[in-house]
Amino acid sequence: MxxxxxxxxxxxxxxxxxxxxDIVSDESKQLSVFKRNxxxxxxxxxxxxxxWYEELSKVYxxxxxxxxRCEYLGDKVSLEYLRQxxxxxxxxxxxxxxxxxxFNKLLFSYIxxxxxxxxxxxxxxxxAFVETFGDVTIDDSLSAKVTNIDMVLNNVILGExxxxxxxxxxxxxxxxxxxxxxxxxxxxxxxxxxxxxLNSDELFEQVGISAEEQExxxxxxxxxxxxxxxxxxxxxxxxxxxxxxxxxxxPGGIDLKRIYSEAQMHKSAVVxxxxxxxxxxxxxxxxxxxxxxxxKVTIExxxxxxxxxxxxxxxxxxxxxxxxxxxxxxxxAVPVFATNGITIKENRVIFLADDPQLIFSGLKEKTKLTIRxxxxxxxxxxxxxxxSILEESITLTDxxxxxxxxxxxxxxxxxxxxxVIQEKENQISHQAKVITNMENTKIWKAYEQxxxxxxxS
Length: 457
Description:
457 residues; alpha+beta; five-stranded antiparallel beta sheet
């Protein structure tokens, strides 16, 4: 006997696309997924899911992408229930651990496989395309005969291959190949909690999507979401989902989930500590500590005999540390060896970039380290103020340095002039002495007497 353990109604769509997704458990606790149409108009949509499974399986044959197994059962389709993690989760974990090289390699490897889906045919705008995505202007572009536009990262399950679990939105008319890639990046950037670590312009640039293309694809996505998905063939006006009525029917609301999440983030901020016998740090030799940053943080660490360097990551985001105090087992102060922050005072450091770090060295003779500080997160407005002050400080420092160089140059020139003047004065003094000595000689005196006598005569 089968038992429904989960059911989701996707009914804020046009009737022809409205479906129900059930996760069903049998007597052996084996789980399966079933999708069925909610209205008679949606029967073809369910049939198409199986059709897309067959056609996309052929398209991606021989690649690292496979389609989740699907069977057509007349009134519904059956899909395999997969328990592995998604590619989206794995990429977020790499960002959390700041493994950017691995993040880029994994992301772009997947996108390269997506592009292997027969995307070699010239794009031609058809009536079906205009109905689905709007009448946009597309320059020269490639497309496939069959395109799944929903190969976003939370629809990809990790395993021996990348398994696509949702291919509901697949089309058999030309769609620009880069539109599927755009959706992959767009929805990941919009949903990741590590958005601040990403440079979206660089990501789109690496896959060859310009800013102008992004605007076109955004318009296509808007038409697809707001017109095509919400309009039935016989209806002229699109369906208006309840979610779109919220601002019209509500005087306002408080996002309790966001408030709760922020409060939890403060109470359970993750501090990561890395230990090393050399000046290199790895996840394998690290530990995490949960701290309440609404209070003064105190961390006591036991050091192994071979530990010479320690790196403290007090938070993932921009922040400032005040009342910083680090002492060893003898109560002696341990100075900061290196940091990617700005030291304002001896016990205060400001981090304007994410992933703040403090590094301590010379720890081999120490058995224990106690670190205390008060942490305050820096919001975007405060960050802009600090950056402005820092920029002014750098400009002022450069100006002072330039003026000092000019002063030193003038002083050096003045010293040269004084040296020349002294040399001239010495020459004049020497000549005066020569004349005085000459005037005291008998010959000069005789000459003087001769001149006097000659003038009288």
